[in-house]
Each structure stands twice: as structure tokens, then as C-alpha cells.
Amino acid sequence: MEEDLVVNMEDEDDDDEERGGQWGAGELQWLQEECVSSGSPAERSGHIAITDQCCMFIWGGYKNADGDAADLYLPKSEVWVFSMETRRWGVRRAEGEVPSSMSGSCAACVDGVLYVFGGHHARGNTNQVYRLPLRAPVLRWHRMRDLTGLAPTCKDKLGCWVHRNRLVYFGGYGYIAPPGHRGAFELDENSVMGNHAGRGWNNHIHLLDLETHSWTQPVTKGNAPSPRAAHACATIANRGFVFGGRYQDHRLNDLYCINLDSWEWSEMYVCVCVCVCCRCALTDPSPVCFRCVPQHGPVGRSWHSLTAVSPDHLFLFGGFTTSRETLSDAWIYCISENQWKLFKHEHTERPRLWHTACLGADGEVFVFGGCANNLLSHQQAAHSNELLIFTVQPKPLLRLCVDVAVQHRSRLQLQWDVLPKALLLQLQRRSPAEP
């Protein structure tokens, strides 16, 4: 977990009334055309972000309120959309059974539908699931009420993997699980105050089958990770990865992998060798140990991001250490080599925690929002609405050509008409709007 932050709801109504309506079918063309807003999202932390086709969708989170008031959740009806093609923001107003304004929710996108589970709102944690079809002309939320099976407990700051049309939720910070839940739970003694129900960390796994609308818990094998929250998850093929997170007073730097078909856990240990100086066993392939040279690899952290950027690589950015330092380092983990490598980038002066990270189509990771200082200190939180872009793979040749054509638009535009229609449209969308 990370400590809960006292927040005020901008709109505390909790409308549970069923509002019917059918999901429309549509393309993302209307989104691309409307992502021309001159504005941008408000600064925020604890929000969610997912991608669908060429767009990144942002919802929820909270920011500083004006004056000495408590922190403020962002408007629950707003869904911000960033076109990764045109590099422009737009905002959509959602209707229907809109979730309460929240932070720490868990989001996933499957076949153009956004699924949101859990989170923390003004009255505590929730375990409700909402779906939002993103390709419809009108964005309309729907609360999934017909779910069967044993649902997860109410919690936030959890992780998710997507596999075979199933959402697989892991860990989090929330209320004590009733009998019948598989996995471990560790009570946070600091959460037991007055009439408030105790909460803590868990390592539960719950599957939501999107075809049968049913909850189940798998029987796992191997040594499972310790209970944790504010960790980060990523999916590659049938493997789910989880790195770090907070457990009690510690922020972890362990990396685990679970096979999403066999449900077997594996901790990803790096190569072991012997130090030539003191003959101790090493977990780093260098010939000397941490007592002889600085250690290599990410330090323990929570509130970071982990993004699958290729079938063999994970991208780790930012987070918050046990010593309450906000981080700006980035790392690449190579699965086949079982090795962490420090990733050099231009955003080293922009530390972030509780941000989001999404992979674009051309090997770029888009990091949005988050906090740039110690979120748990008494000073005002430095929430951000900045978009940081990390190029983690060489850009495709087509992307490089489009970039050059847009850069030299004044010289080349007269020749654009001879291009194929799809390429012409791409150039026009990428070009700056006329003043």
C-alpha cells in the first residue's frame, strides 16, 4: 500500500439508477477529428490510462484543491483523449452509470472497451467493475451487475494482466478478506482507527472472465510474491510480470513472473557468480559485489510504472523509495538475458510517482501525470499534467519519413497530393493547425 490521502469529492452523488442504452459501433475517426482541443487535462496523480488504436484515454485521479482545502478528485464525467498520431488532446463527456470520482483504480482495455475495477473514493474502497466502450459515438458507462462467483475485496493500488479475454487482478490494499479467499493478507495496524474497518496488503489473484461474467480464483504453484500494493504489472504473451510495490514499511525491488495458463509463479533471479575480492555469492554478473562497487539494478520502489515494450523487454520508470525519494530513473529488463539495464533519457529532472505509462505504436512510451515530489510529506504535492515521451525502440522507416515531411511541410506540401490517400490523411493530421 501507500498511505491513503484524504480527498473531497467534487460531486458526491452516487447514482445507482439503471440507465439503459445500447452501445453503438464506431471507428476512432471521430476521436481523431475531435482531439483538437486547445486545452489539456488538469494535473493529477492516481489516475488511470489505457490505449486503444492510436489514442490514449485518461480518467480519474486527484489534484490539489485551491487554498487550504483538502485534495480534490477530478470530475468523474471527463474522459481525456490524447491522439498519439496528431499529438493533440481532446475531452469527452461520458454518460450512463458513471463511476464515483476515484484514485488508485485498475484499468484495462479489451477489444475497444475500457474496464475499471476498484479504487478509493470519499467513502472508502470499492470492488465494483465498470465498462466503457471507447469506439462508440457517445461514451456511456455501464456498471457490471450480473457478475457471479467470489469477487475480490474492496481495494485500490492493485495490478492487472489481460489474457484470453480474462482480466487477472493481483494484490492491492483494502479490507480484510472474508473466508474463502485464496492468498495471504497482512493487516496494516495503522489503518485500525476508531470505527474504521482495518485494511492491509494482499497477494490475492482474481480472474474476471469477460465471456461468462464470472469471478474465479486459480490455484497457483510455486512461491508467490509477498502481499503488496502500489506495485506495477505488465503482460507479455501468457506471462504476467510484477515488480516492486509496498509491503508494510518496505518498498520492494523483486521481479516475479506467473504463467497465466499453468498459474505457476517464478521469481526472476539474475545470474549468480562469485566476487573476486571477498568470494561472496553475487546476484549481479559483475566480478565484484556491492561492498566493492555500487550495486546495479532498480532500487525498491512503489507507485512506479512497468510497460511491456517488446516480446522480450519491459520498461520501468519512476516511483517512490523506502526513504521517500521520488525517482526519475528508467530501466529496461531483458527477459531472455535476465538482466536489468539502465535506460538513458532526457527526463532525468522530472521525477514521477503514481503516474501512468502507455506504449504507442512506434516504440514510444507515453508517461502522463503523477507527482514530482514526496507525496506523503506536509508540503504541497507537485502534481503534474506533463506528458513525457520515451523512445525505447528505433522508429519505423514510415514514421521517420512522416516526421521529415511534416517538419519540412512548407517545402513539400505541394507534392503531397500525389501520395496515397491514407498517407496523405496521416500527414494532414500530423500537421500543425492553421493559425
Helix percent reads under 10%
Strand content: 35-45%
Question: The biggest beta sheet, please?
Answer: 7 strands, mixed
Number of helices: 4
Output mean pLDDT.
86
- What is the radius of gyration? 22 Å
Which structural class matches the secondary elements? Answer: mainly beta
Number of strands: 34
Which residues form runs of ≥5 with pLDDT under 50? Answer: 3-36, 271-276, 279-295
What does this structure look like?
- The protein has 435 residues and is mainly beta.
- The longest helix is centred in the last third of the chain and has 11 residues, at 397-407.
- It has four helices and 34 strands.
- It is globular and about 70 Å long.
Features:
435 residues; mainly beta; seven-stranded mixed β-sheet; five-stranded mixed β-sheet; 4 helices; 34 strands
Give a brief outline of the structure:
This protein is mainly beta and 435 residues long. It has helices at residues 29-34, 397-407, 409-412, 421-430, and strands at residues 7-8, 48-52, 55-59, 62-63, 71-73, 78-83, 88-93, 95-96, 106-110, 113-117, 120-121, 124-125, 129-133, 140-143, 148-149, 155-156, 159-163, 166-175, 185-187, 199-209, 214-216, 232-236, 239-247, 250-259, 265-267, 273-274, 281-282, 305-310, 313-320, 326-334, 339-342, 356-359, 364-368, 387-391. It is globular and about 70 Å long.
